[in-house]
């Protein structure tokens, strides 16, 4: 999932450089959403790993 977030971030940066503001904003929004989902799942996995060890 982090891979897709980085891909959308790169798409947003390229679109912004080329002047496509709408596409850049959409891709950046998707990248932010995917990163938040990744962070939540990573944190949940870390906590589950700590609880499973006990």
Description of the molecule:
This protein has 2 helices and no strands. The chain has 54 residues and is an all-alpha fold. The chain is rod-shaped.
Shape: rod-shaped
What radius of gyration results from the CA coordinates? 15 Å
Strand content: under 5%
Number of strands: 0
Helix proportion range: over 70%
Largest sheet: none
Average pLDDT level = 93
Head-to-tail CA distance between termini = 28 Å
Contiguous runs where pLDDT drops below 50 for at least 5 residues: none
What are the defining features of this structure?
2 helices; 54 residues; rod-shaped; single chain; mainly alpha
List the helices and strands and how they pair.
Layout: H1 2-18, H2 21-53
Helix pairs in contact: 1-2
In short:
The chain is an all-alpha fold. Helix content is 93%, strand content 0%. It has helices at residues 2-18, 21-53.
């Amino acid at each position: 999932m982090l891979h897709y977030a980085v891909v959308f971030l790169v798409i947003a940066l390229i679109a912004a450089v080329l002047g496509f503001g709408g596409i850049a904003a959409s891709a950046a929004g998707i990248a932010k959403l995917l990163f938040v989902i990744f962070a939540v799942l990573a944190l949940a996995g870390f906590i589950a790993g700590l609880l499973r060890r006990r």
